[in-house]
Amino acid sequence: MTAAVITADPAQRGGHALIRISGGAASGLADPRFRLSRDGYEASVLGAGGWQVADALLRPLDARADGLDLVLSVGPAVVDQLESGPVRLVVPSAGFDEPVFWPELPLSRGGQISTGIAVPTPAEPKPPPLEVRQKLDTPVRQAVPPEPPRPAPRPPEPPEPAAKQPVVGGTVRSRRTLPLALAGVLLLAAAGGGAWWALVQPTPTPVPGTAALLPNPPRPAAPPPNPPRPAQPDCAHGSVADVVGCARDPDAIFAVAQRQWDAGQPDQAVVLMQIASDRGSGTAALRLAQLYDPNTFRPGGPIPQPNARQAAQYYRRAAQAHQDAANAPREALRQRLQGDAEHGDTLAGLTLKDFWP
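Above: the chain's sequence. Below: its structure in token form.
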């Protein structure tokens, strides 16, 4: 049975906790979002801003695999909102939906650890004496200075006498007429000179064999350098998320898991085998069944103890994926469970009923 344990995070001072879900690393590491809810309240779901009515999924600060377990790290946004008592924890990707007991954890209020010691509230300042308040409340009337006298308006200036105009032939003509006539004569002279120069000026003959000198065209701007390509994940030696992200199919995930097993990394290899089996790899299911099978179990490996029910589950997956190599060890496990059930082993009888027709 999958279980969850909540403890304070020893690497933090306060307001942080670790949620360990037994056997949840295989399917829950790819999407570690979780839900916390409480019964008996209208705002029963914990959201990003506190308790709310609408459903919400929270994202942990960190998620990692510790053997077969999924470990979620949460911070003050979660720890400071919870009191000691029962809550319901749901991790959809890991298939976990169980009530758990949230323990008493050190809190972090605004980054400070809650010590339980009351901090005295600073005393409010005393009001000033009555006579000072009366002086402060009495409006001060300021004397408004008188407006300065306005200067007397200046008398209007007398109009200038009209200039005498020259008299030509008994008619008064403006002085502006002479400059305009002179400008017209000059323009006619300039136009005539320009026309004469255009007629007498010979047309230049181009010299054969010579090309017109043109300015060099501007060089095109150099193209911008190619941006660096992002680093590709290491499918063979990377983390579980890297392998799952770049593997082609479930059998490719199992191939990487087998190489990591041979390289001395059995814990991560088992997690990858479980992911490959969940996605339909019959080879991975057969390998996991043999690790759990009491008939083939080897101590000292990543599986702490044999589990006939887990082995029966993986044998059935391998058989459904048409792995003929699973038929013989599966039948051997069935006979062993049959003998245990005849001697009063209730769990053996339930396993036979659930995984064999």
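The two ends are 23 Å apart (CA to CA).
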